[in-house]
Structures are given as C-alpha cells and as structure tokens.
Design brief:
Blueprint lengths: L16 E14 L5 E14 L3 E5 L6 H8 L7 E6 L2 E2 L3 H4 L2 E4 L11 H11 L4 H15 L3 H6 L7 H13 L5 E5 L7 H16 L3 E6 L2 H7 L2 E6 L2 E7 H5 L5 E6 L3 H7 L2 E5 L2 E6 L3 H10 L3 E7 L4 H11 L7
Parallel strand pairs: 3-8, 3-9, 6-7, 7-8
Antiparallel strand pairs: 1-2, 1-4, 4-5, 9-10, 11-13, 11-14, 12-13
The chain binds adenosine-5'-diphosphate and magnesium ion.
C-alpha cells in the first residue's frame, strides 16, 4: 500500500512512471535574518504511472504546493531527487511536456484572456498560424466564450473564469503531464462540476494528472490513486480500494427473525425490539438467503465502506494531528 520508491523506475510492461520522487524534503529559511527554519516537506517518496490521475490530499499548510513546485522545478529541494517523464526536474525538454495550473493564479489584470493565451502560446513557440485555432478550441473546451475572452480584461473575470483561463494556459502546449493545484477551490457547485468534467476528459485522453486538493470529495470523485499529506509527511498512498477496503462490506437493517441464525451471517448484530442492524463482509445473495431462512426481513442494505473523509480524519487522529495547524 505504501508506495515508497527505492530506486529510479526500470522499464516494465506497465505504463512508464510519469512522476517519481524519492526523499524530497524542503526546509524554508524565514525571518529577517533568514535564521528561522520551517520544514515544509519531509522525505516524500511518490510514483505516479503514465495515464494515472493522482490526488495529493491534505489540509491547508500540509506542503502540497511545496511538493508540486519542487516537482515542477520552481523551487529547489533541500534533499531528495525526482524525475518527470524520466527526466530530472527542471530539465527543459521535460518542461515542454508539462502543464501547470497554479493555485490562486495571478494573471495580468489588464490583458484579456485571449491576449494572455496568445502570450503563453508565443512562449511555447506555437506557430502563429496555429495559435488562433488552438486558443478557440481550448476556450470551447474549458467553457469560456471567445467573446468574453477577447473583449474583457482579466481583472473583470470571476474566479471561475480565471480558473478556466488558467486551465486553458496549462493545456495549450498539449502536455502529457498536467499539474493542477487546487483546481476546484473557490468555485461554485456548477464551476466545480465543470472543472471535474474537464479533468475526467483529460483522463480519457490518457494524460497523467497530478492533482492537489484539500477537498476530499473532489479527490474521491476523479482520482485513481491518492496520497495523504499532513505537516509535510506522506501518511499513506494507494488506490481508494486499497485505502478504504473494497466495497464488499455492507450495513444491513431489518426486522424479526431468529437472533442466533442472523448472528451467524452478520459480524455485528444489534437488536432493539423487532428491529436490528448489523454489518457483514459476506456476499449479498448469501446474506439475504440467510436472513430469509432465519425468518427475518431486510429493510435496507448500504455499502459500509468508509468515506475518504472518515479515513482521512482517522489517519490524522491516529497520528495526533488535527486538520488545523
Ligand atoms: N516561501 C516560503 N517561505 C517560508 N515558508 C513557506 C513558504 N512557502 C510555504 N511555506 C510554509 O510551508 C508550509 C506548507 O505550505 P504549502 O506547501 O503552501 O501547503 P499547502 O499547499 O498544502 O497548503 C506552510 O507552513 C507554509 O507556511
Ligand atoms: Mg497549496
């Protein structure tokens, strides 16, 4: 379950490793004399396969942005090493294949969205003849009208519009790996839904997505694998099934029936008067047959898999960490 990478990935039949890090650490120096040290990340090791949607989950201040910026080569690690698409971080050829949506992106207030995207396309050396078509296509994709992109300066954009422009600039170079730092925060429910659809469409296209979020629900609904980060430490990494257990546990409520017979198929059994409830890890046909055989009736069956939220809070509590720092 823990995905501590020991050595650089070797070629196998599985998809190649797109993002790999071992022992990444970051200590910031702060204060007027730069003599105070803040350790934001402690020996983080991760590996994300090509085509995977990976969610880095953690409360505010956990170190998510710090980790992402180091992977992008924007800040230097104090210790550790990492590769993106097999190349060391900061490598120029690698950067061309990577897209990045920063957290709270600050764009040029007095440019229109279109002018800004033209500027990014120019930086990426996209030929002039292709720019207009590429930008129109991306605007359509992220759900921003060409009209508002061309006629409005970005200081007049809502948070949702800025996120869309941010997403368009992250994708303009058709990257293989996309880093998204809190892509859904600050958006209204419709905006979140649309952003989630964009992420799912990127996933369909086979892109590798590295997604930072403090919102459990967003991670749960789009990510293949997640890692939980708190106070600079990776607490665990795995697929939702690995972390939460498969979905084959059920909470069952019912009425009546022979208690001893019911108790033999339910791992927990709690009866009050005629009503009872219990949990089981057995297959549903077996359980329903046993309940009926015991003379009982089933009122409801629900998945007893814990939510990511419950799992997340337990991880923090078990380590004496709270969600606020
Ligand atoms: N440039 C910096 N100088 C000093 N401390 C920083 C700097 N950037 C981040 N930190 C600190 O590192 C910790 C992790 O921050 P960050 O990576 O932004 O967390 P997250 O993205 O999970 O909210 C926080 O305690 C933050 O105050
Ligand atoms: Mg952050």
């Amino acid at each position: 379950m823990n995905h501590a990478a020991q050595s650089p990935p070797r070629p196998t039949d599985e998809p190649p490793i797109a993002v790999w890090a071992e022992g990444l650490s970051k200590t910031y120096r702060t204060g007027f004399w730069l003599n105070r040290k803040v350790t934001s990340l402690k020996r983080c090791s991760i590996s994300v396969r090509a085509g995977e949607t990976f969610g880095l989950l953690g409360p505010n201040g956990a170190g998510k942005t710090t980790l992402l910026k180091m992977l992008l080569g924007l800040i230097r690690p104090t210790a550790g090493r990492a590769t993106i698409l097999g190349r060391p971080i900061g490598d120029r050829a690698m950067r061309q294949r990577v897209g990045y949506l920063p957290e709270n992106a600050y764009f040029y207030d007095y440019l229109t969205g279109w002018e800004f995207l033209e500027f990014v396309a120019q930086l990426l050396a996209i030929p002039r003849s292709q720019r207009s078509q590429r930008i129109t296509q991306l605007l359509d994709w992220v759900g921003l009208s060409v009209e508002s992109a061309k006629n409005k300066q970005m200081r007049r954009y809502s948070k949702g519009m800025l996120q869309r422009v941010g997403m368009a600039q992250a994708l303009i170079g058709n990257p293989d790996v996309v880093f998204l730092d809190e892509p859904m925060s600050g958006l209204d429910p419709l905006g979140r839904y649309q952003m989630r659809e964009i992420v799912l469409a990127l996933k369909e296209q086979g892109k590798t997505i590295f997604f930072n979020s403090h919102i459990l629900n967003d991670v749960e609904s789009v990510c293949d694998r997640v890692a939980i980060l708190a106070r600079g430490e990776l607490l665990c990494t795995g697929s939702l099934d690995e972390l939460l257990g498969g979905s084959e546990r059920y909470a069952i409520r019912g009425r009546g029936g022979d208690a001893a017979a019911l108790g033999s198929v339910l791992d927990t059994f709690d009866r009050q008067g005629e009503s009872w409830q219990g949990e089981t890890g057995r297959a549903l046909p077996e359980v329903t047959a046993a309940v009926m055989g015991a003379g009982g009736a089933i009122a409801s069956i629900e998945s007893a898999r814990p939510t990511l939220e419950a799992y997340f809070l337990k991880q923090l509590r078990d380590r004496g960490l709270t969600t606020s720092q």
